Amino acid sequence: MKPVFSFQGGETPLLVSIPHSGINVPKTIRTRLTEKALQLPDTDWFVERLYHWVVNQGAGLLVANYSRYVIDLNRPADNAALYSGPGTGLVPDQLFDGSPVYKAGSEPDKPELTQRLQQFWWPYHEKINSELQRIRERFGYAILLDAHSIRTEVPRLFEGRLPDLNLGSNAGASASPGLVAAGFSALNTNVKYSAVLDGRFRGGYITRNYGRPDDNIHALQLEMAQSAYMQEEPPLFDQKLAAEVAVVLSGFTETLLRWSPV
Predict the structure, then answer these.
(1) What is the domain count for the chain?
(2) Distance between CA atoms of residues 211 and 194, nearest Å
(3) Which domain holds residue 159?
(4) 163 exposed, middle or buried (CB, 10 Å; 0-12, 13-18, 19+)?
(5) For the whole model, what pTM was predicted?
């Protein structure tokens, strides 16, 4: 089996986490998925390609290799709800559109859920935690950017079209106000892209759990509308669109790297 994640260490206070772009599904799970789920429609397609250059900026890069249908790394281990209204859980049984992930009668039981936590969820989170601790020990503070994307229109989850760039700080609780303001300003300077702060996506479990500014660990989530960098149907990376938005993303991460708490 492939490793749970891929990791490249950094030499700056910034760690970028990409928990939802993985497309691997173990055969024991794949054979039980519906035809629609086998297409992995809710994947954060190609996000690892969007951010590959952050290692050249000196940031660390952590990328999950397995699909969110195996287990959702951005949900709490106890499966507590993060948002009001429709959503998906730790081990999703519904796609974003509400259709089933599993063929009838083949849903995972409790022992399997526990096994998936141990095999996939905990190693990823242990790596985030250990790396943030290492960074904070070296620099005095750490910054975590959790990078995501989603289809521009998902009626079951939100109304209308999603803004292009959706920055989440858990309503200001997961990062210093100065860092949040600087990051959002960097995203909101290009008129081509719409941007919003703490809108529909305020940050998932990773942002909320690890963002502890009083302990000198700051976390932000950036959820990008997929139409900003790809063709959504079928999933197809668009080099031209991606290159254009990469200019904004690069400026954003450079802004995070320039910031310091003092």
Answers:
(1) 1
(2) 25
(3) 5-258
(4) buried
(5) 0.97
